Amino acid sequence: MKKSLTILTSLVLSASFSASAIGDESGDAATKAAIKARQAQMQLYAFNIGLLGGMAKGEIEYNADAASKAAANLAALSRLDQSRSWPMGSDNAKMGAETTAALPAIWAEGSDIMSKGMALGEAAAAMEQAAGGGLDALRGAIGPLGNSCGGCHKSYRQSDD
Amino acid sequence: MRRAIRYLVLLGVLAAIVMWWLTAPARVDRAVFADLTGDAARGERVFWVSGCASCHAAPKAEGAERLILSGGMAFPSPFGTFYAPNISSDPQYGIGNWTVVQLADAMVHGTSPEGAHYYPAFPYTSYGRAMPGDIADIHAFLQTLPASDQASLAHDVGFPFNIRRGLGVWKLLFPAPSRVIDVAGDPASQGQYLVEGLGHCGECHTPRGALGQLDYSQWMAGAPAPDGKGKVPALTPDKLTWSDRDVTAYLSTGFTPEYDSAGGHMADVVQNLAHLPESDLQAITAYLRVLPVNN
Looking at the domain assignment, is residue B184 inside a domain? Predict the structure, then answer.
């Protein structure tokens, strides 16, 4: 037990050392990696919502099994731990508009980004419940889902269409 | 000579009187509203089309909080910063004691109950196209919303734009046409009413001139964002090339055809439009399809 604790401590220590080493030598690269990771997550959201939205619009024939799977993916994605995806300073003011559209307001005082993120989780969970229960149920859940996306993008993403 | 000067002075005084009279805040015809009884249930739809909550809810309000119209949101512009006032049902701090015609004066002519001009940050240039029945209905609905005792903030506008009477000249110079384009048949006509009137889409999607007046020759041709950051996209058929189905779905979900989602102020608009029946959204789409393309 004691031995395993020692191993754990050394692991944590070395991890934090290497993290600080990354921070010192290539902080920019680490920040860019985090930005890429969260953008990839957004892509996965869009990919799965694409199927559900296509069914809601009537462009794709409704299929309860496929809809359930996409909605389950979505809910799983919304539960991923993102604590490393949004490091301080990974905003568009510091990293440039070509790299990210994330506004500094995300990290500013008074930011309600966490509650906005939770709203997405709730909307995704509701979609997971609804998607397999018929097209009408799916269509009823797609609006709130879209609105939960907008909840964050409204205040925290640079808008320049 | 002395006679000529006297004439000139007289002419000047007359011109000033005429100008004062011409720039007086206008009011609606009381008779039109005399027999109207507002219906709060119908008014809810008018409320969401009109997007009142987008500006008059407290900054960052979500869900049911968006129905507390306490005001406070800031609107930076080249003329200064405007603050949305409290329009909650509170009789002292809000507009709880306003009558239907007082609300109609405000929405149609931009005239306050005290007879002052409102700044066109409040989009009476569009709301002026609202039907009297819809104004009575939204009045009834606003009465059902919670009261807030948050005092309205004064606008931060510099000289000469802080002289309210000057807005009378502005209104005189730039009258809003009752219809912007010619549209025949439904659902496009229904969409015209929603887009040009209550929805006041043109207020952001149409460029403005030096004095903040809408450039109707560039109707819905896209514009710089009012706060100077970014652009508001064009909605004319040459630029908005999404399918009808995609546009209608976007209006209620905010999802683009690629399943990106609406951001900025449009995310707010979508939150409002999500409350509307699909037929209204299809009508809006139909209207956008017949917009003239100006190059």
Answer: no
Residue B35 tokens, joined? 């027999």
Whether chain A has a CB inside 8 Å of the CB on B245: the answer is yes
On whether residue B125 sits in a domain, the answer given is yes
Q: What single DSSP character describes residue B122?
A: S
Whether cis (ω within 30° of 0) applies to the bond prior to B132 is no
Sign of the torsion formed by the C-alpha atoms of A116, A120, A122 and A126: positive
Residue B124 included in any domain: yes
Give the pLDDT confidence of B76-135 residue by residue, as tens digits.
888 899 999 999 999 999 999 999 999 999 999 999 999 999 999 999 999 999 999 999
Residues 69-128 of A with CB under 8 A from B: 112, 119
Q: Domain for residue B115, yes or no?
A: yes
The count of structural domains within chain B is 1
Q: Is the ipTM of this complex over 0.95?
A: no
Which member of B230, B260, B264 has the closest CB to residue A154? B264
Task: State the Cα–Cα distance between residues A151 and B61, nearest whole angstrom.
Answer: 10
Range of the domain at B147: 2-176
Contacts for B232 with CB less than 8 Å, ≥ 6 apart: A161, B204, B205, B222, B223, B224, B225
Alpha-carbon B20 to chain mean position? 25
- Domains present along chain A, CATH in parentheses: 38-156 (1.20.120.10)
